[in-house]
Design brief:
Blueprint (H helix, E strand, L loop, with lengths): L4 H27 L16 H42 L1 H16 L2 H12 L3 H4 L2 H25 L3 H10 L4 H30 L2 H6 L7 H11 L2 H41 L1
Helix pairs in contact: 1-11, 2-3, 2-6, 2-8, 2-11, 3-6, 4-6, 6-8, 7-8, 8-11, 10-11
Length: 271
């Protein structure tokens, strides 16, 4: 089959964009495993920069994962229920509430952090704990979870299914777990993917909220760029990639498997 010329033009443009995004990341990762970045690969490969990063910043990596996991748990609990409520209510009221929930996305992270410091900065123990950063991350990522789940729920007929289950005597939590959640699963997976990546990689808000004892991975990365050798900072970037990329791939595979399962069920029903 002969493809039109526009196909090759689009393919070339796509490859150029991918190279523009991927090549700098590859060069940064290679800098973390070379003896001397300015000499290049001729200086030889080494893992001592990665070992040094792990020894100096392992706590920031663990803290970033801890905050991301708790951020996801809170988002799943609050975000899914909020999206379900908005989908049930509908109309102008639901749109107004949705816009209020999405408002933190339109506000700079530094402004959100400053508001949190003004409101809760007087609580010393809370201010110096990682929970303070967690609150900021939840405020920042909650709109993405709500929007993802709400978009899926509004595109399905979950209300009819839920009313059918209610007519059979199913209580609310039974209907929510067995009817609403399965229909909302694609949105939940997409929202979870965004929440994890945004929480782990968030810098502006975290930089304002952190203390010397509550540094996260992006803050530690910025510190390493500012105060250490470029090789150390690049090794830090490599650690970040190794930590986040497998997680993204796993969640994407899970989302694809759910989509394929749903498609198979629909095909069987059609036949």
């Amino acid at each position: 089959m002969r493809r039109p010329k526009i196909f090759y033009g689009q393919l070339f443009f796509t490859l150029i964009v991918c190279a523009f995004l991927i090549v700098p990341a590859i060069l940064s990762a290679l800098a973390g495993v070379t003896e001397n970045f300015f000499v290049g690969l001729k200086s030889g490969f080494t893992f001592r920069w990665i070992i040094e990063v792990w020894e100096l910043y392992s706590e920031t990596i663990y803290l970033s994962l801890l905050i991301a996991v708790f951020c996801l748990i809170i988002n799943l609990f609050i975000g899914v229920l909020a999206a379900y409520s908005l989908a049930r209510i509908g109309g102008r009221t639901a749109r107004i509430v949705e816009e209020m929930i999405v408002l933190p996305v339109a506000i700079p992270g530094l402004a959100i952090a400053l508001a949190l410091i003004i409101m809760y900065g007087g609580f010393r123990d809370f201010r110096t704990s990682w929970l303070f950063i967690l609150v900021g991350h939840v405020l920042y990522t909650l709109p993405f979870m709500v929007r993802s789940v709400l978009a899926v729920l509004t595109s399905t007929n979950f209300k009819i299914l839920e009313e059918g289950a209610a007519s059979l005597g199913a209580p609310f939590w039974h209907r929510f777990i067995n009817v609403v959640l399965p229909n909302a699963k694609p949105g939940i997976l997409a929202g979870s993917l965004m929440v994890i990546t945004l929480s782990v990689g968030e810098f502006n808000l975290t930089w304002m909220l952190h203390t010397p004892m509550t540094k996260t991975l992006p803050v530690g990365l910025a510190d390493s760029y500012a105060s250490m050798r470029l090789e150390v900072a690049s090794a830090y970037t490599l650690v970040f990639f190794v930590m986040i990329v497998p997680l993204l791939i796993a969640m994407q595979l899970l989302a694809n498997s759910q989509h394929q399962t749903k498609k198979l069920i629909q095909d069987e029903d059609a036949h």
